[in-house]
Amino acid sequence: MPRAHIELDKRAVIAPVHRRTFGSFVEHLGRCVYDGLYEPGHPSANEDGFRMDVVALVKELGSTTIRYPGGNFVSGFRWEDSIGPREKRPVRRDLAWHSLESNQVGLDEFARWLKLTDSELMLAVNVATRGILPALDLLEYANHPGGTALSDLRIANGSPEPHNVRMWCLGNEMDGSWQTGFMTADDYGKIAARTAAAMKMADKDLELVVCGSSGSAIPTFGDWERTVLEHSYDYVDYMSCHAYYQELDGDLGSFLASAIDMDYFIDTVVATADHVGYKKRSSKKINISFDEWNVWYLKEHQESQKTYDEWIYAPRQLEDVYTAADAVVVGNMLMTLLKHSDRVTSASLAQLVNVIAPIMTEPGGPAWRQTTFYPFSITSRLASGEVIRPVIQTAKYETAKYGPVSVVDSVATVDDDQVAVFLVNRDLDEPADVTVDLRSLGSSRITEAVTVSDADVRATNTITHQTRVTPWLNTSAALCDGVLSIRLPPVSWSAVALRSRGDHQ
Ligand code: AHR
Q1: What Rg do the C-alpha atoms of the chain give, in angstroms?
Q2: Looking at the annotation, which residues are catalytic?
């Protein structure tokens, strides 16, 4: 049986836990908005048409910042279409997802939905097919208090208070051939710099995200980051990273190690950003907004993509049903994001409802939690204070994709009241007995120990079996003389919370 020993030292602080690490993403895509979070005829809908059963699940998920309205969608979007009297809003074709957009939900409605869920808005502007002026207009409409044409229009549209959006994305995945209006790194770097400079003339405290590569497998990865930042470094604050993982060719071992790739991806983008910074003799650091990450059965999506001959509203697209193994990978990726809290200060699980999402809905019917909901909600609830880098002694297993990989991975957080330890066992067959030396953190008793796993790693939650996979109390967890011991089942994610003695400083 694999064994692992983990040392946690209160001096090994990486950075604070950033609440924005637990962000998510709502795109006008498939049934994320329409027939997802918005369904006027649903029994739980409020006066705006938002499903309150979905709102309750979003709050339980603990997502913080929500990126909106895309995604690929944003590159064909005219924001002005989605404000004002609903009956006057135009229907448009969305080329990105080959569907019809009714514009019945726009910025003002979405801002009200965010209030219901206690979330922060992260707004994307269309730099692909529009330009600087529409971006400035949107900024004025969203953030200016009043007394100008567009801020007064917002007030007239029923939003007297400015939305005060702090984080803005300068387009989306501009390197992708699938992106409406895709660009070269040079072209994008220039337009991103000019758009960012103009937006900061309006408000120098905005936090602007420039597009990195759409994935680390893209041939231009690295060069894209360097070129884009050479143009835009002085004007932007974040560079985006996007990563999706899936099990390919039945290679579960490699899939379970996806966090290794995410780790490498972050290190490479940070190194590239710092390289440009050093070249510019800049004291400023560009942080990472990991604003799309998840498990996505993308290969199946690409293979099943047909040439649509009809345009319809809210088609069922990208409705992946997640397994117990997928939940372990999602939990492990969140651990990697926490381990990079010194530079990854914002992240968005893509997406939130129905579209590669932790929350699923049925029109007129229930809303339920996918397997991946649990590691996210539990980590968001328990992680606080500072992130501690663990020293992990563990066996390795061989993967086809990444070579030898640690069986057990972990990260911990600590604040004055609580220590939280997050753990995965990637072994396909064997449980792992783990000891965690917490003496340096001064923990006094276990308050919670939960595991997400299933004897069938392919088990899922569906409309007919909504609670097939749920977290269970891990009664093997015990604390003795400041050392935690716990048995982790094969292919499992776990979290243990302990009362801290409040002397971690
Ligand atoms: O999240 C789904 C899509 O994935 C987004 O629209 C796009 O940015 C990415 O390719």
Answers
A1: 23
A2: 173, 292
73: DSSP letter: G
Q: Which atom of ligand 1 is nearest to the CA of 318?
A: 2
Q: Is the pLDDT of residue 82 over 50?
A: yes
Taking the CA of residue 172 as reference, the ligand 1 atom at the shortest distance is 8
Q: How far is CA 502 from CA 14, 243, 417, 477, in A?
A: 18, 37, 6, 22
Query: Quick one: which H or E segment has residue 297?
Result: none
Q: Is the pLDDT of residue 227 over 60?
A: yes
DSSP H or E segment with residue 323: none
Q: What's the number of CA atoms in the CB half-sphere (13 Å) around residue 211?
A: 33
d(CA 351, CA 357) in angstroms, rounded, equals 5
Strand partners, 239: 210, 288
Residue nearest ligand 1's atom 6 by CA: 71
Q: Residue 158 has which token pair?
A: 């029923």
Using a 6 Å CB cutoff, which residues line ligand 1? 27, 70-72, 172-173, 214, 292, 350-351
| Residue nearest atom 7 in ligand 1 by C-alpha distance | 71
pLDDT tens digits, one per residue of 102-125? 999 999 999 999 999 999 999 999
So what's the pLDDT on residue 308?
Answer: 62
If you measure from the C-alpha of residue 320 to the centroid of ligand 1, how many angstroms do you get, rounded to a whole number? Answer: 14
At 246-283, the pLDDT tens digits run 999 999 999 999 999 999 999 999 999 999 999 999 99
Ligand 1 atom with least separation from CA of 70? 6
CA-closest residue to ligand 1 atom 3: 71
Among 27, 75, 177, 178, residue to substitute to test ligand 1 (most atoms within 8 Å of Cβ): 27
Atom of ligand 1 nearest to the CA of 173: 8
Q: Give the separation between CA 294 and CA 228, rounded to whole angstroms.
A: 25
**Cα(291)–Cα(274) distance, rounded to whole angstroms?**
20
- Whole-number Å distance, alpha carbon 50 to ligand 1 midpoint, is 23
Which residue has its alpha carbon closest to ligand 1 atom 8? 71
Structural contact between residues 493 and 451, judged by C-beta atoms closer than 8 angstroms: yes
In angstroms, the first-to-last Cα distance of the chain is: 36
Q: Rounded mean pLDDT of 400-421?
A: 96
Q: Which secondary-structure segment (H or E) carries 196? A: helix 185-202
The H-assigned helical ranges of 48-143 are 52-61, 107-117, 132-143
pTM over 0.85: yes
Burial of 312 (0-12, 13-18, 19+ CB in 10 A): exposed
Structure tokens at 196: 């960012």
Q: What one-character-per-residue DSSP string does 214-282 give?
A: S-TTSTTTTHHHHHHHHHHTTT-SEEEEEEEE---TT-HHHHHTHHHHHHHHHHHHHHHHHHHHHHTT-
| Predicted confidence (pLDDT) at residue 305 exceeds the cutoff of 90 | no
Tally the residues of the chain: 505
Q: What secondary structure letter does DSSP report for 131? A: -
